[in-house]
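Workshop exercise sheet. Pairs work together: one partner reads the sequence aloud, the other fills in the structure field after running the prediction. Swap roles for the next sheet.
Pair: D.N. / O.F.
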Amino acid sequence: MIFERKPSFDRTWKGLTDIRREKAREALSELVHFLEGAPKPEGLGLKKLRNPFWEIRIDLKDRILFTMEKGKISFVLIGNHDEIRRALKRS
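Structure field:
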């Protein structure tokens, strides 16, 4: 599986506090382990939004938006529910 970060993901990553960044790392690690065949963690909140967009939960507020296509995961954005919805409208 190939993983990439979009510039929009990097911009939102830089804006995170250290605590939020650590929570995001944990969520990303759980996602990668799941995609490699581990059981799905209960708190991951993996959800298909619309093709090819998916999201996982970092915590109650924050989400990570990504695409999954042909063995490639592209991390698009970190944000709250409204920010994710706005990003989907633009795509």
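Discussion prompt: The radius of gyration is 12 Å. What would you look at next?
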